[in-house]
Amino acid sequence: MSEKQKNATAYWKENLKYLIILLSIWFLVSYGAGILFREALNEIRLGGFKLGFWFAQQGSIYVFVILIFVYVRLMNKLDKKYGYDE
Amino acid sequence: MSVQLWTWILVGITFTLYFGIAIWARAGSTKEFYVAGGGVSPLANGMATAADWMSAASFISMAGIISFAGYDGSVYLMGWTGGYVLLALLLAPYLRKFGKFTVPDFIGDRYYSNTARTVAVICALIVSFTYVAGQMRGVGIVFSQFLQVDINIGVIIGMAVVLVFAFLGGMKGITYTQVAQYCVLIFAFMVPAIFISFQMTGNPIPQIGMGAKLEGGAFLLDKLDALHTQLGFNEYTSGTKSTWDVFAITLALMAGTAGLPHVIVRFFTVPKVKDARKSAGLALLFIAILYTTAPAIAVFARTNLIETVDNKAYKEIPQWFKNWEDTGLIAWADKNSDGKIQYVAGSALEGKKPAFTDARGANGERLISNANNSSNELYVDRDIMVLANPEIANLPNWVIALVAAGGLAAALSTAAGLLLVISTSISHDLIKKQIKPDISEKGELMAARIAILFAIIIAGIFGIYPPGFVAAVVALAFGLAAASFFPAIILGIFDKRMNSKGAIAGMIVGITLMLFYMIRYKTGLIGVMDARPASEWWFGTSPEGFGTIAMIVNIIVSVVVSRMTSPPPESVQEMVESIRIPSGAGEAGSH
After folding, report:
1. Do B284 and A68 touch (CB under 8 A)?
2. What is d(CA B321, CA B299) in angstroms, rounded to the nearest whole number?
3. What's the whole-model pTM score?
4. Could you tell me the residue range of the domain that residue A13 belongs to?
5. CA atoms of B125 and B111, how far apart (whole Å)
6. Is the Cβ pair A26, B584 closer than 8 Å?
7. Could you say which residues from 406 to 425 on chain B have a Cβ atom under 8 Å away from some Cβ of chain A?
8. What ipTM did this prediction achieve?
């Protein structure tokens, strides 16, 4: 395998690692907190909100936005590290 | 000034703006026409994507649906935003690196097969037409309500307006018009929400006001839950759908969002891979402003509605109630003859819509002939919640007119984006890539413009003569996209071993299964069979959620078939490796 290919493979592996972490959070806040575990979370209150309901109608959306911007930052750094930025 | 005058002024100003932009941003080349020349900044692209995405349905119907569905409405909120995470992380950067014009371009090249390209074009056309048919109807409804014209004339005005900016500017014109439309629609959505939030809870931020205390000291949501229980509805914050169905619908909407061709094509318009990631983030940020406000509006409107009408004498009801009654979107039958409106759980009518007679009742209400004998006396159309909200809350006339301008911006921007995808599919994917490869750029541009003209006419006909199933089908466009494109694109990027036979088999099985389920359980086939009842759904999955199952079947079929047949050629494997690396994206369409 050439240097260039090794570099590309290492970059792809780190990229996949980020994807798995970020998508796990994506799944947990929406399908987890907002749907599967909402009954349990509804016992907890956040001001006037039941927590499960809040995740389903507000919280998950905030986390989605943050997730994408975190991804942008991580990937920009990763591009630099492997010399793919332009 | 009257609402009517304000509406004409605001609609006039915004339309002048849109036309000005369309003329300024005329497209001269196919590259400008298809992907705006690939030079749109991430910020502008983010706004344009948001406007493209938020249709009349998001603007007008969504808050109303949530208002009546409570927790169940969460499927739309999470589904239509969470899809952007998938788009940003799994699709946009790679498709931008690939750097062609359309989704069928990617499928055709990645799967080195014109059959794959054709299947993708057909899927794109099915998805886009089901979606756009509903939009044109929406355009017609908004025009007719605010300009007081017939609904069909509304559709025709809408067609003419869309034609001008899509025809002249292509993607470039549409993109910059959509930036303006985003600003108009978000302003129009937020102003009444802020007013009402402040009025009800003393907090001007709707997202916080929704969870705040009312003047009396009780939390707004607790009060609404109590009102719901008292009137026999399910608790607002609990909902009625099964957990599995909520899960399935949310997933189908998310994957569908990420697989909609008119959304994906947006990420071909920015200069670099880096910009594609960033503009997906910005798009979701701009969308999230509306999507986190909508559930707040839903709660305010629901509480206001119940408090204003329940057990109140019809004679003392505010004027807005009677105005909407005149348009047929509210109906009341005084079943127990006490002159008061009783609003409790259950339908007030036989059938779905009120059948008005020409007569007036003892209290001056419009009589209906199809009242049933349940104790609920009130029919309210869900679509009026956003439109009537400013009136219910007694806001100034200019705010009510602003909502009209916003609704029009939302409907037009989405229709224009969709029509462009349809015309691109025809002129680029079919004519240039398959029928007549030696067509000149000028010829292709001409073909694109002719295709858009036909697409608008067909969409307009759907809008004027809506087949009964259109409304039902719009929500299913997501299931169709999830069942066809989404797996083919994801596998094309993340599974190097995926070959043409696997992807084609997967797409065909996926979309056929989805169409079958949709026809069997949702729309029926006119003259042949009626839709089967919910008790026969597979695993209790609604047709809206079935996209999830069809998508999983697509993935399984693709993987199994690809592993049983030969791997893709070396050149394709190299291409997959190259799209996984962000540098050297070049300009879109440089082939």
Report:
1. yes
2. 19
3. 0.90
4. 3-81
5. 19
6. no
7. none
8. 0.95
